[in-house]
């Protein structure tokens, strides 16, 4: 027991240290977990060993990942992006899988079944790495970014049929057609039953659970749904992850999607991290060194082959050179679901251990290379291609047009409930403002009400410049994302030292951090809420209202520097 606790402590220590470093240097945490497995696993320091219990626990990481993807599954979104998703995405996957299958079949003397299994795995790209990179580089809405996200969305959907195809490929050759037919018929039947029943029961079940107003019960019910549907599909010979995907898709149709997503995220992240640790444990460093020439060739074929496929499709769709090259770089790596499929292929004995090690190692190396390839491709293409420059320029022009003529205005970052209230107060004082918001629904609603609002990510320097920060009299950050708010404050302070910046935060623990970044005043919601509750409590138990308000004013005078003299004067009057 003591030895087990020591190993757990060692694993947690490595996880805390490596994930902290990954966050510090903006590297995907998935790569940190892979390094832990490689370092501590049976091919490294041999402190962690593979076992059925470990594999089972790690598999639940994929179960919760597929559940999360199911929560994001949106028919309307697919309809809007259908050409990119089912056109570009399907072509990329089919051509990549076919090319890899041929190469594996003939070049590495594997059977066609092994070739197809490897091809399906290699065709996947990393949603976790690429989506984050595109967001950080302000490229999600560029032409290359939209194409890349369309392909990634198709790959996420294609995982489900891939999880059905691989077990069918493992059947005896004479029964392959029958096995495939039965697998798809069985899967279609099971999915129809689960979806048909689930659509009628899921909302009622969650309504009943929510009626108890118990967070504990709600989380337990969510876990019950995930595990129960995974067990159901597993009993029919299908993947556990398939059942989880269905569960997420059913819940996405209810009003509880966002609550469920928040409840599941800790389980998903921890278990998915454990899955990547087990993947890292499978990497044989000695094999990589002994087969370095073959591995180098495999990496070149994987990265180069996927990039060439994407380039061909991009040019066929009429993209310019820069957009095509950047899209190719964004998709030219292995992905997390590819790791799942290649491990499943090994488990089903579709590929040999050497082929598994070679493919796995090549995929992991390509994933380590991905951030650098994306950055280099952007730099090579002038950071933003001509067409994407036009899109970005138009976006910034729209913001500049809205701020044109404004002098002494206030820039409101975020136009939710807090932002709207700030806007109401400014309108009452005839003070102009410009709001920056990322939610299209809020923008449409505010424009309908006559609000001066534009689409823009407030923590980007170019967006703030376009919003007229140089001419503004104040900045109000009205959304609770502390990291983004800190970036806004730093960006504004680089442009102007004198402008007041007021920031909203959820918790008082973040006040010092934002003050150090340069915020003039930081308003913690929890403080204001606690003051009002405390005052109401005093009033309800018989303390005169004037006395209760006096306590509130004293607390505010102590907390808010700009209001100190006002509240002290008010206190003297009372």
Question: What can you see in these coordinates?
Answer:
The chain has 574 residues and is mainly alpha-helical. It has 2 domains: 2-171 and 188-384, Na+/H+ antiporter like fold; 404-573, 3-Layer(aba) Sandwich (Rossmann fold), CATH 3.40.50. Helices cover 73% and strands 4% of the residues. It is built from 26 helices and 6 strands. The chain has helices at 2-24, 29-40, 52-72, 75-80, 82-107, 112-122, 127-136, 143-169, 176-210, 215-235, 240-252, 257-282, 285-290, 292-316, 321-331, 336-347, 353-380, 386-403, 417-428, 440-448, 461-466, 482-495, 511-517, 525-540, 545-559, 564-573; strands spanning 410-413, 433-437, 453-455, 474-477, 501-505, 521-524. Strands 3-2-1-4-5-6 form a 6-stranded parallel beta sheet, sandwiched between helices. β4 (474-477), α22 (482-495) and β5 form a beta-alpha-beta unit. It is globular and about 85 Å long. The model is unreliable at 383-390 and 562-567 (pLDDT under 50).
List the helices and strands and how they pair.
Elements: H1 2-24, H2 29-40, H3 52-72, H4 75-80, H5 82-107, H6 112-122, H7 127-136, H8 143-169, H9 176-210, H10 215-235, H11 240-252, H12 257-282, H13 285-290, H14 292-316, H15 321-331, H16 336-347, H17 353-380, H18 386-403, E1 410-413, H19 417-428, E2 433-437, H20 440-448, E3 453-455, H21 461-466, E4 474-477, H22 482-495, E5 501-505, H23 511-517, E6 521-524, H24 525-540, H25 545-559, H26 564-573
Parallel strand pairs: 1-2, 1-4, 2-3, 4-5, 5-6
